[in-house]
Design goal:
Blueprint: H1 3-22, E1 32-37, H2 43-50, E2 58-63, H3 64-70, H4 72-80, E3 83-86, H5 91-98, H6 105-115, E4 120-123, H7 133-136, H8 139-155, E5 158-160, H9 165-177, E6 182-184, H10 186-194, E7 199-202, E8 206-208, H11 210-219, E9 222-225
Parallel strand pairs: 1-2, 1-3, 3-4, 4-5, 6-8, 7-9
Helix pairs in contact: 5-6, 5-8, 10-11
Length: 231
């Protein structure tokens, strides 16, 4: 997709949202997906893979070179997105994201999404050797790549084959829509006490283990659970 096409797509999304609000329509806006790509080389292939999602979600595409010059605009779109997808992650971005180095746009957006517990989907396309590449690429290099992928999965990233990109996105959004709870353990209470805390505020979707409650009482730590917002 050309730069003009991407801009046109974004403008259309915002005009439609504005008209919907102006007319007082009750339908909620479609969830937003931000698709990050290292370059334009595979843009047509990625758009084709995402085509089946276009009626269910608002999809924005961003190429790394655009992100470098767009600044706040893409950060805002990333914040508004319900999910971040990286269908064609470069080896450099993979290594940086797996080691939490956020000095480039794509790793920075992905790392910040993970810190905010936002779903992230990447595929193994161009990362894991296929066909005769399995013979050509040194096995120890493949081992390193697989370790990076395991690290991302441990952070909560959904890793899938490119052919299952759309379904993995649907599944990830479905899981994130289900009720999520933070869980406070005894170790958290002891860490707060050691840091000198006497009162800790936590969101309404927080569960506290019985031992954590007991330790909080014994150490004089008050855990305040916010009241759930009325819908």
């Amino acid at each position: 997709m050309s730069i003009e096409g991407k801009i046109s797509s974004i403008v259309r999304q915002y005009v439609e949202a504005w008209l919907q609000q102006k007319q007082g329509l009750s339908e909620p806006p479609l969830p937003k997906i931000l698709v990050l790509m290292p370059n334009d080389e595979y843009s047509s292939e990625v758009e084709e893979a995402m085509r089946g999602l276009s009626l269910e979600y608002q999809i924005s595409y961003a190429v790394n070179s655009e992100l470098l010059h767009a600044g706040v605009e893409w950060h805002r779109l990333a914040d508004e997105a319900a999910l971040i997808a990286v269908p064609m992650m470069s080896l450099g971005n993979l290594a940086k994201t797996a080691t939490l180095v956020d000095d480039e746009p794509i790793p920075a957006i992905v790392v910040n999404a993970l810190l905010g517990r936002k779903p992230v989907v990447i595929t193994t396309k161009n990362l894991i050797p296929t066909g005769f590449e399995k013979v050509v690429v040194p096995a120890n290099m493949v081992d390193v790549i697989e370790e990076y992928l395991k690290a991302l999965q441990s952070y909560g990233v959904a890793v899938s084959p490119f052919s299952k990109l759309a379904q993995t996105i649907r599944d990830s959004l479905s899981e994130s829509a289900s009720e999520f709870s933070y869980l406070i353990h005894s170790k958290h209470v002891r860490e707060w006490v050691n840091e000198g805390e006497i009162r800790v505020k936590v969101p309404s979707n927080t569960k506290i283990t019985p031992l954590a409650r007991e330790d909080a009482r014994d150490f004089g730590l008050k855990i305040e659970v916010a009241e759930e917002e009325s819908k």
